[in-house]
Write a structure and sequence with these properties.
This protein is an alpha+beta fold. A hairpin with a 2-residue loop joins strand 3 and strand 4. It starts with a helix and ends with a helix.
């Protein structure tokens, strides 16, 4: 009964949320002829310092009731994370979106990644401890999400919805991701 097996596979993929929404256009187009580097903001020269790092540098001889002096960089340190949220069962489209997103970000933002200002994280929201992401970001399906953090606190986030529409148009996909990350990094 080949039909029963195919129906079961479709049911599993639908339950896992790995279906592609209807798209308006999948036509590939070459990227606009402009300098992608010109869109990218300069790398923040300050190195991010987390609250745990600041606490680790505190003098153990100082009583805990005294405030630990912090530098302005510590107070304003922020970090950006590009998350790709997925489930355990993944279809080829989901895998392609993750691959293309990671490659576009690594290619265009290698300096920001190396400096620690930007991070790439692929997160299975069905693994223990990751379930909260689905609620935190109102995830309805696999998603590419840009998040700004100050310490552990989310300052802002943006879901890049068009990746599903552009998955079969590599140039448009890359241009979309790179430009959205540039706006997110520079617009905060």
């Amino acid at each position: 009964m080949p039909f029963a097996g195919a129906a079961a596979l479709i049911l599993v993929l639908a339950a896992g949320g790995c279906e592609r929404p209807p798209s308006t256009s999948n036509a590939a187009k070459p990227p606009a002829q402009h300098d992608v580097a010109a869109k990218k903001p300069a790398v923040d020269a300050r190195s991010p310092v987390s609250p745990t790092t600041a606490a680790a540098h505190a003098d153990p001889a100082v009583p805990a009731t005294q405030p630990v002096a912090t530098s302005p960089a510590t107070e304003t340190a922020r970090k950006f994370v590009a998350y790709y949220f997925h489930r355990t069962i993944r279809c080829p489209t989901c895998l392609s979106i993750e691959k293309q997103s990671r490659e576009a970000i690594e290619l265009a933002y290698g300096g920001e990644l190396s400096a620690g200002r930007l991070e790439w994280q692929s997160v299975n929201i069905e693994e223990p401890g990751n379930e909260h992401f689905e609620k935190d970001f109102a995830l309805e399906r696999q998603s590419l999400m840009l998040v700004e953090l100050r310490g552990e606190e989310v300052q802002q986030h943006k879901k890049l919805e068009r990746v599903w529409e552009l998955v079969e148009a590599p140039y448009g996909f890359q241009e979309y991701v790179v430009s959205e990350v540039a706006v997110f990094l520079g617009g905060s």
